[in-house]
Amino acid sequence: MTSLRVVRSTYEACHTVRSILQGFRVMVEDRDLSMDSSFREELRKIMSQGGKIIPKNKFIKLPKVFIGGRYIGDAEDLQLLNETGELKKLVEGLPIMSGGMCEACGDFRFIICMACNGSRRCYKEEHGFRLCAYCNKNGLTRCDTCCTLKS
């Protein structure tokens, strides 16, 4: 998924998927490619497992929906499954969302890195300034309060 609004059709498809899944009140691991580039590489690897290599410069249409580690499809596929009632069967047994917004990150799933304060640079007496080893390229770390995925 992406929360980046540059490409309207992609943003709207991601928003639609998020809304459909929230309607079932199940916990969702939302991997926002605009927040962490490692998610893009992870998706590229997963989508290449069928034997088809996806080059790094090739665009991958978003969103891609997985339930229980199984690829379900894109936004259109999810809408069709929802309309036919099949999606309800697929989400049965998944953990239910806890009520309310995460107090640590406001449901953004990322927080500013506590080691470098988002600057991407840490100072060590013996080495001087170095790139922070704890955060992503945006100076963010996954929220430990609400995220099940650990980096």
From TrEMBL:
InterPro entries: Glutaredoxin, Thioredoxin-like_sf
All residue ranges annotated as the Glutaredoxin domain in the record: 8-72
Pfam families per UniProt: Glutaredoxin (PF00462), GRXCR1-2_C (PF23733)
PANTHER family: GLUTAREDOXIN DOMAIN-CONTAINING CYSTEINE-RICH PROTEIN CG12206-RELATED, GLUTAREDOXIN DOMAIN-CONTAINING PROTEIN
Protein name, UniProt field: Glutaredoxin
Naturally occurring in which organism (per UniProt): Artemisia annua (Sweet wormwood)
